[in-house]
Amino acid sequence: MKKEVRIGFDVGGTFTDGVIVKGKDILSKTKTLTTEDVTSGIINALDDLLTASKVDPLEVGMVSFGTTHTTNAIIERKNLNKVGIFRIGAPATTAIPPLTGWPNDLKEAIGGNENVFIINGGSEYDGRDIVPLDTEAVQNACKELEGKVDSVAITGVFSPMIPDHENRVAEIVKEVLGDDIHITLSQNISTISLLERENSTILNASVISVMQRSINALKDATKKRGIEASLYVVQNDGSVMSSDYAVDYPIFTVASGPAASVRGAVYLSGITDGVVVDVGGTSTDVGYIVDGFPRESAITVTIGGVKTNIRCPDLLSIALGGGTIIKNSGDKVVGIGPESTGYNLVHLGKSFGGPILTVHDVAVARGGLNKNLDIFTNNFVTHPEKIKELSNDLVMNATKNITEMLEVTIDQMKTTPEDIPALIVGGGATTMPKENVSGTTEVINPDHFEVCGAIGATIAEIGAQAEAVADLEVEDREQAINEVIEMAKNNLEIAGGVKDTAEVIDIEEIPFAYMPGKRQKIRVRVKGKVFN
Amino acid sequence: MSVYDLLEKWKVKKYRVITLEDLEDITVGSTLLATGGGGDPDIGFLWAQKIIEDKHEIVLLDPEDIPDHELITSVGCLGAPVVLTEKPPGGNEIYKSLEAISTYLGKDVNAIIPAEAGGVNMTIPMAVAGALGIPVIDADGMGRAFPELQMTSFYIGGVSPSPVAASNEKEEVCIVDSEEGEVSERIIRSAAMAYGGISWISSYPMSGLEMKKTAIHRTVTHAQEIGKIVRENQQINTEPVKDFASFTGGEIVFKGKVTDLNRDFGSEVTKGFSSGLITLEGIDSYKNSEAKVMFQNEWLHLEINGKTLSLPPDLIILMDPETGLALRTDIIKYGYRAYIVLIPADPKMKTDRGIEICGPQAFGINKQYQTLDQLKE
């Protein structure tokens, strides 16, 4: 049997969206309430999809999901692993020990300072040892950690370029603590900038069990329903990774939601460069698409109060959504938001007989909303007479203001003066004006925009990256770049991709400041397919 | 001897103990004053935070309260910022270089002054002074950041950086003694390379009197006030740029987003610096205008619609509109949005000798220095 059916989920704060697709066809979609444990919400959505689509479970070839499991665990300090922390870098780096600047409750939740060891070792940028690795100190530390930690985070100075010391410490940890201990190596997590990479590595090690449990639960659930398919998880750049890989690298899922929306919008519209405007009830996230992937943010990302350098999509959020309240004085608009009726829109909004004028009501009055989304049970307007009472001028003025808010936000995300297409997606997408939005070539609501993130999860593409430092005074530039490309392709394979399908998305060269010579960092991103 | 023994001996009653919030504000403010350079400020901030959490007190003194005859020294790091972020200090490096200076001169160093009001080298002296139990002086040698050792108001005012001591985490030390600031700079930079990219230096040993004459006064407090303005605006979600400009006597000259970024490559071009040119396209009321900013670690030369509007040593500051945080030359990217604010440099940086040492020609810009007001006309 051909396994052409794919199932995707996108877990949001309020709703868990799901879709089931076959080739390019969307067989069924669903929106269910997100549950506290997240997993049961996904399983509810799965049951909805299987029932509605009547698909033979054996036809399903891929199940993938974007999830908030790890983010929630870190923010709520719940179910976190106790982490043994190794930093390889003494006698350098000791002025600022690991966990400096962490919130106390989070520090305690992962076991605190007593599991921290700074070991003599690490590398200089040119590959020399700072000092030789103190293997005996690692062994002694492991003995102290025995029975006290579930996972281990290892961070070595310059390990993204010279991984030897980190790898050696990992071997020793396994020798002493056994093969079952989960080890996160910073070289696999992020890039240069020791403290932020170390934070990212420790956070990753702290949520391994959280991810493992949720993946096991979903594997069980799919198996029980007769599905024999590989499980994938959406990562921060919008591509997917195999579930086995996700257990080792759960931190790569912290921004998977918005990333999946961007990917879904690309897939639904066929547009690979432009802006994606994801409209919710109270706010709108604007992301930028470059070659089909979300543009990455260069600013450090704070997770649960901890500064990290994990790669996340560049997003601009504004307080404008379907439920946003419009304040007016006669025909004049005095203000739009930031207050929103949120989920009380269906009681408070004018369209539903309520007293409050919202962005949704203006869209209804404009005639912009003219059909129900089959995913929602309620009608978009129950009191049309209330909408007819609105003056034309007020509707026009409000529309003008909303359009301006969109224009400013889109313009801020743009990197070129040329007009670009805008893809409007998300549950509140239909409430946005689509005519005369300056800076855009067209404004599109792609079909199925309300479950865009879940569709993004079904796109079977994997992303990976690699980086290294080259000295162009002694190395050939092209050869140096090719070596990094090869590394990135190998990483792609490790993440679950087919190496032959790898395509280079981006090559970045960053020179080292202040240093004589021609040293530069080379970073390569690739993407590839999950299936051949 | 504790810092309070020193204060008693000097009969100083007015001083300020730096709190964690002060430190946050100083970091934000000094990163703005760093005019795009100064390196990742986090290392200095976290180090000083650790010092405060370890129950040390960072005591800030007004420059006028330092006795004339006391030996004071500047401390900081010199080298590649990217190495600094990957290989933070062990903590003893600077103590070793300070010790070397003391031994060489046969005198104790009793106060620390930051060399620049920029980024990491403003907060590191605070950490070091706090740990050593000596005061840190509310002043610096630039009122901004510059890339080279000799580009200071100290040197402009006739104080040589020598003897300079440079150390690393293995506590290896070298000492350079030269009357020529440029020579000291070259040798110390080579030491940084030999150490693996970064060196921890003690420089400009001078008397309290020399410091008072040549330093730019009260810049730590100035940086802190700037940080406070940014923080307070963030709390009420307003753009800090107007308050920032009016407090610093600066002028907002542009708002735009980066549409082109051209980094130079190759040591014969860059001489080891991070240099290049960014182009910003105007937004909001600056629509249809174009700004070009040349950088060499710091933002150095600003041109709007083809007209030069700022030359070193005057300050060009690129500020993120919403957060009010500094945009640095090492992190700037396509699509970043910025206000450009110009602030006149301190008069001590703009004497004839000052223009020679850190004016346009010191950076290979083939132009005569003109003030911001002259350029505006």
UniProtKB/TrEMBL annotation, chain A:
GO MF terms held by the record: hydrolase activity
Domain Hydantoinase/oxoprolinase N-terminal: 6-176
Source domain of life: Bacteria
Transmembrane feature ranges: none
InterPro entries reported in the protein's UniProt record: ATPase_NBD, Hydant_A_N, Hydantoinase_A, Oxoprolinase-like
Domain Hydantoinase A/oxoprolinase: 197-461
Family matches, as Pfam families: Hydant_A_N, Hydantoinase_A
Name under which the protein is recorded: Hydantoinase/oxoprolinase-like protein
UniProtKB/TrEMBL annotation, chain B:
InterPro entries for the chain: S-Me-THD-like_C, S-Me-THD_C_sf, S-Me-THD_N, S-Me-THD_N_sf
SUPFAM superfamilies in UniProt: CV3147-like (SSF160991)
Stretches assigned to the S-Me-THD N-terminal domain: 21-177
Alphabetical list of Pfam families matching this protein: S-Me-THD_C, S-Me-THD_N
Residue ranges annotated for the S-Me-THD-like C-terminal domain, each copy included: 183-371
Protein name: DUF917 domain-containing protein
Protein's organism: Pseudogracilibacillus auburnensis
